[in-house]
Amino acid sequence: MPRPDATTGAATHGVPGKLALGRVTGGHGVRGLARVKPFNADSPLLLAADEVDLVATGGQRQSFRVLRRQPHRDTVLLGFVGIDSLDALEPWLGATVEISASGLPPPGDGQLYHFEAIGLRVETLAGNLVGTVAEVLTLPAHDVWRVRRASATPLGDADEIEAADVLIPLVGAIVREIDLRQGRAIIDPPAGLLDDDAE
Fold this sequence. Notes:
Largest sheet: 6 strands, antiparallel, barrel
CATH class of the largest domain: Mainly Beta
Strand content: 35-45%
Number of domains: 2
């Protein structure tokens, strides 16, 4: 199965219909260019965005038209209408960069955006519920779903992988079907991937 595009599971936090692409990590030059660290380095969406929302760490949100965009090392430099100096950019340092999910191009055949996987109900071929997709991990070989087991009770930080979580490699031999309309994915887990009571 081809690698899904876009971002990590953090994408759906915040306002519904918005997709988080990265974070403003600093300024560049004297004209207020924002240095943005993408959440998914493979995604081209930051370089294609014409308008973005900046969401400050305190929750303030504002839309900006993008005037300039270019890759720069492991970041993307973005220039915004209305921000023409480092002083003007300063309130937005640390801000999350979001776009409207409705403006995304359709994913390729057999692909899906990371945010579309978050919350999917994962079941085995036998119809047993495994849990729900909590996060998409982008690894060199393929993506991996972190699935929160149906019986899991949160034990600590939501960003930590709990003992009750299961990691599902996003490969065709294991993930047999993804039905976004039904909100579910069907897997054929190899021996040892799940506990006996979930297979």
